[in-house]
């Protein structure tokens, strides 16, 4: 049984616990004007809204994925092929009328062209002239052929220079061009022939190596068989 002194101490402790509880909340928190006291004893007004602590696993905003820059490959430089020569210009109108006439159809054999000059061979059976025309202006450059047997000394276009200088220079250029093309073709054929010879030499080399390897293996097989035979004889 407790004594009076023990009962008194117990009552004092109970009263002290009620007083400490009243210091934290003065009014009910549901009522208006209630004061909230934090753990440090500071009064917090009810109008102040305390934000809750953030959750430790709060989702982060998505991170924008930045793609690496694309490598733009530069187009490979290709060797430009030589441009084809431009087509020849049409025959001059005046010359075309003359070439379409009956005289050319009955007396002339061939028409040649070099750049902007035209050669008309009408020296049929060595009885007619050979004409050289300028296609740019549609005029006669010179008259040659059998007409030069009895030339007119007063005709500036009759047999003064046969063939004309421009025609000879043009034919010389054409001849040089033809010779250059033939030389390039011969060079390409020679390179192809040398490549073929090199391939044949390579094939012969491989065949010789294969033959040597075959003979070596054959000798090894013969030696192995001889050793086996000697071993059986010795037993």
Quick synopsis:
The protein has 235 residues and is α+β, with helices and mostly antiparallel strands. The protein has 4 helices and 6 strands; from the N terminus they run αββααββββα.
Low-confidence stretches: 21-31, 52-58
Main beta-sheet annotation: 4 strands, antiparallel
Strand arrangement within the widest β-sheet reads 3-4-5-6
Number of strands: 6
Mean pLDDT score, rounded?
A: 75
Number of helices in the DSSP assignment: 4
Shape assignment:
flat
Gyration radius, in Å: 59 Å
Give the ordered list of helices and strands: HEEHHEEEEH
Separation of the first and last Cα atoms: 120 Å
Query: Structural class from helices and strands?
Result: alpha+beta
List keywords for this structure.
two-stranded antiparallel ribbon, alpha+beta, flat, four-stranded antiparallel sheet, 4 helices
Structure report:
- This protein has 235 residues and is an alpha+beta fold.
- The protein contains four helices and six strands.
- The strands form two sheets. Strands 3-4-5-6 form a four-stranded antiparallel beta sheet, with helices on one face.
- It is flat and about 170 Å long.
């Amino acid at each position: 049984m407790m004594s009076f002194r023990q009962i008194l101490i117990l009552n004092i402790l109970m009263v002290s616990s009620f007083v400490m509880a009243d210091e934290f909340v003065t009014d009910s928190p549901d009522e208006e004007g209630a004061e909230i006291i934090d753990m440090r004893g500071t009064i917090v007004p009810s109008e102040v809204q305390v934000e809750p602590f953030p959750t430790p696993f709060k989702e982060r905003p998505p991170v924008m994925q930045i793609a690496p820059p694309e490598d733009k490959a530069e187009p490979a430089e290709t060797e430009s092929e030589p441009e084809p020569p431009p087509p020849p210009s049409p025959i001059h109108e005046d010359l075309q009328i003359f070439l379409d006439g009956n005289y050319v159809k009955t007396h002339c054999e061939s028409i040649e062209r070099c750049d902007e000059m035209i050669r008309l061979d009408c020296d049929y059976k060595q009885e007619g002239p050979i004409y050289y025309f300028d296609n740019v202006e549609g005029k006669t450059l010179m008259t040659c052929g059998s007409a030069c047997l009895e030339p007119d000394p007063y005709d500036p276009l009759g047999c003064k220079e046969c063939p004309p200088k421009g025609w000879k220079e043009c034919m010389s250029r054409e001849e040089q061009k033809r010779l250059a093309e033939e030389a390039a073709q011969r060079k390409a054929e020679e390179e192809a022939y040398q490549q073929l010879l090199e391939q044949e030499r390579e094939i012969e080399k491989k065949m010789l190596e294969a033959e040597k390897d075959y003979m070596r293996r054959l000798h090894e097989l013969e030696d192995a068989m001889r050793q086996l035979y000697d071993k059986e004889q010795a037993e």
